[in-house]
Amino acid sequence: MKFLPFFCLGVVASFAFPYDAAHAMALWILCLILSLLSYRYFPKMLWIMALLLGLFYGFDRTQNAISHRLSAENSGQFVDLSIRVISPPQKTDINTRFDALVLENSLPQKIHTIRLVDYQQREWTLGSQWKISARINAPIGMVNHAGFNTEAWALSNGLDAIGSVRKERFRLPEKHFVSIDFLREKIDQRISRAGQNYPRGAALVSALTVGMNHHLSQDDWTHFRHLGLTHVVSISGLHITMFALLVGMLALAYFRLAAKIEKLPMPNHPKKIILILGLCAALIYSLITGFSVPTQRSLLMLLIAGLAVIGKRYWTMWQIWFVALTVVLLYDPLSVLSIGFWLSFGLVGALLWFSGSLKNDHRPYAKLKMTLAAQVAVSVASVLPLSLFFHALPIISPVVNIIGVPWFSLVITPISLLALLLPFDWGLTFASCLAEYTLYGMDALQNLSFMIYTPQVSWVWIVLGLLATLILLSPRVLGMYSWALIVLSVLVLYQPFRLPENHLKATVYDVGQGLSVLLQTKHHQLLFDTGKKGAEMNLIPALHADGIFRLDALVLSHGDEDHDGAVKEIQQVFPIKQTWAGAVSDYDFPVNHCQAGKSWTWDGVYFEWLTPFNPSDDVESNDRSCVLHAVAGDYAILITGDLSHKGEIALIQQHQDDLYSQVLILGHHGSKTSSLPRFLATVLPTHAVVSAGFSNSFSHPAPTIVRWLNEHQIQIWRTDQQGMLSFELGKQLNAQKGIRYQPYWQQKPLKP
Description:
This protein is of the alpha/beta class. It has 24 helices and 23 strands.
């Protein structure tokens, strides 16, 4: 038992090794063999053996998963597939998403599970089998220094590829297929029917009872995040324990009735039977709710504790926690890549650490005092993970949780679970009504919520933050509480170093098939375009990680969804002093036209609009793009949005001498409709940047553009292959990938 922590540490540490460490597997095997041989003479080295065994196991299982993952080289192909739908389809406003088991494919590479998207929103019955054609890609998405990581998500969910279904499909004869998801889907449909008059409430009931949380709207998820209540929606120990208690209480009621009525059968050990029934109920319920990592942890801890009671063995809560952690890592070591793993085991571990400092107190008010203290402990323990994973801290969370956790745990969830067990639907209708009015209350609380956004910090501060958290959750340690509070305050209030005067930093974020560029001077920041919708998952966390909490200017180059699609999301999060746009008539809020000739200076950096056309000119949408030229020291950057050949010729005619720039953001994502050789020869860049999506359907950047740039020895930077990019202009020009560290399991940034 004492060596389990070292094994778990080894598995977790295996995911932190850099890209080239994947080739060092032979070294780990050699170290493991040497430690086994030396154990005979040095028995105390067993902990090293456990650590190396964990490293080896983590590497081996991850390499096995990677071997089935579609490679970047095979992305973008149209492939014939035979599939079986293995997850309940999730419908959105624009598509239907589902997971499928690949029975047969025309690729040389074997892939097992794929996430498919159908933009025609057709029916895909769970368990049905189809012959389809799909455009498939490696599970590679946007890569910034913060935000959603597609590769980590795909590996932790066992997905080998992602794809979009084409129009043609043929249904295949179905074989007998049994899945727990059938039952989940039936329960979800029953809840939807019963709560049809309360759709938001029914969506919440479905999430709380069977883990089908995709019905919740984006606004509802935003409210949960801003109030710090996201954890109450995930199926965790509280839900599982509650269901087990309900079953146990029903069994207890039966045994009490059997004691009064002699004809009813009565077992010899009713207490053990009640405990076993409760554990079986917890197991069945965990399977029905999707068996996520928090569910696995909760179920294992409950099972281990229950079996210890049945076997009359005493295990501490820490022993139970480590056994549960070990079993989860043995079953699925790739769960380390999910945020739920860290929040689930981390917060429970923090509570165990905190509870060790509490004294038993049986006075009437002691339970309430301990409950409030535990809530404070959870809030303290949440500071570091929320700062690292989301770069946001909901300040109102501790107060809301004091009311929200009991309300969800002791009222809504038990009522919803009990309603599921009843043979009639009016209970589910009542639960949906109660849940809907709860969401209305959250809508009102949302107006009172306040978020503190935190920037990215170095690993040194992360280690210090972990140490400070442990100190604050412990009895007084050498009077170090003040030191710990200072460390956590630094984590929350830390600000990145400012640029010197006359310096400009341009960060090209990876927003997929779109554009978003942040221009920073010493005291000012300008965001040029926002990319598509969904900025809350990628762009906004990346901006916060860079220490951006307000914008002096927002530029919407023109009215295309891949350039201004996330404007509403940006406006909700960031205070914005002024907004510039090329197509001023496309917006229902005040904007200024980025008219040529207007200029300004920030901290010694010169900015000028070179936009070639006026709002009244009869030109296409792309040629309405704002064109921004910025000069810092001896270096300049030029951003042209989606300007076409026509606009580029107009630029040459109007501003030929002013176009020279060392850094050029290629127009229209590197499309052949932009970047005329004459225009490129006028700008004479040394660095050309392509902002495009990985394996995009438009084949951006165009091969002809890439060939011309290579022939003229212009260095090409691509967000689709390298992720986020950074350029600093001033006394010299520094260009680099924004992603400094790449773990071995991540393909992007792609190797040349």
